[in-house]
């Protein structure tokens, strides 16, 4: 109680903050929080938030000095005070780990989605759109490549595939969380995902998956018969990917097969057939690109993956990660160059390809595999790589 004594010495002296350890004696389970996305988590024990601890502290000790009470409350609830920050994983679990965040750091799901719907939005990762970008870009590349020389890509197809990428990515995340619900609870970055945390039951997750697949079917039926068959076959890759982390150190390669399937499907949706000399190099380059960015992403979880027995290329490559992903990056750019050459794209494409090569080289050269925040930044930056390639294809097709 020496901290209490120091705190009460004088209201005119600068406040000495009380460590959270002095007030963490309170049992958080006896004070349930109505917000399912704040501590404590229903399934996994964790520290109560600073604001919650301060409220309990004041309840138990009833400060009689109003200046001290108000100053300590100001310290404890200031949005600029961050304790135990989890910025190394991109801030994904900041709110759940007892960290007070600025409103500007919260996603639109936290701010605008009704509380009852919020768990489903987070299950589909609507608050983390990077996965939709990475799934959608290969589709857009292929659609733009399939455009006739001198023409812009088919905007209707771009819109359909954009919606499809959003739905399929959400369905894939739901499948992944259903399979990994026991493992996710033991990994720091994922322990508060809705199913792992217990906010949603597996049955609710399956029902939500059914809704997403039904909506995706509606989009698939807008395509030609050839594309419908190809699109339906991709579901096998989506549903089996989560199992790969248990059996091979190359789940990122398998993810590449699933995430870049749009490179095949987009061309087929526009042309009604396949040109293997254009589509296959594009598909292969997308797989190599996935091996780059998802290996970087996997370095965020490598310590936890070792504990729970999951496998990844981050663990497979280890200290040689930069050498491996440099090789995959070279193969990615080579495949894109070959695909563009076979499609008779004009010079703007190769200008953008050079710029995207520089972006990829920057990622690899400056990557700090031991820094989770840096890994997340480099991973997220791949949306710009995809945008550069798409821009090059569009301009290259217009000029050709």
From TrEMBL:
Keywords: Isoprene biosynthesis, Membrane, Mitochondrion, Mitochondrion inner membrane, Transferase, Transmembrane, Transmembrane helix, Ubiquinone biosynthesis. Pathway: Cofactor biosynthesis; ubiquinone biosynthesis. GO terms for cellular component: mitochondrial inner membrane. The chain crosses the membrane at residues 130-147, 159-179, 199-220, 253-270, 276-297, 324-341, 379-399. It is a multi-pass membrane protein. It catalyses: 4-hydroxybenzoate + (2E)-geranyl diphosphate = 3-geranyl-4-hydroxybenzoate + diphosphate; an all-trans-polyprenyl diphosphate + 4-hydroxybenzoate = a 4-hydroxy-3-(all-trans-polyprenyl)benzoate + diphosphate. Residues 26-45 are annotated as: Disordered. Its cofactor is Mg(2+). Its EC number is 2.5.1.39. Pfam families: UbiA. InterPro entries: HB_polyprenyltransferase-like (IPR006370), Prenyltransferase (IPR039653), UbiA_prenyltransferase (IPR000537), UbiA_prenylTrfase_CS (IPR030470), UbiA_sf (IPR044878). GO terms for molecular function: 4-hydroxybenzoate geranyltransferase activity; 4-hydroxybenzoate polyprenyltransferase activity. One of its GO terms (biological process) is ubiquinone biosynthetic process. It is found in: Membrane; Mitochondrion inner membrane. Catalyzes the prenylation of para-hydroxybenzoate (PHB) with an all-trans polyprenyl group. Mediates the second step in the final reaction sequence of coenzyme Q (CoQ) biosynthesis, which is the condensation of the polyisoprenoid side chain with PHB, generating the first membrane-bound Q intermediate. PANTHER family: 4-HYDROXYBENZOATE POLYPRENYLTRANSFERASE, MITOCHONDRIAL, PRENYLTRANSFERASES. Belongs to the UbiA prenyltransferase family. This is 4-hydroxybenzoate polyprenyltransferase, mitochondrial. It comes from Saponaria officinalis (Common soapwort).
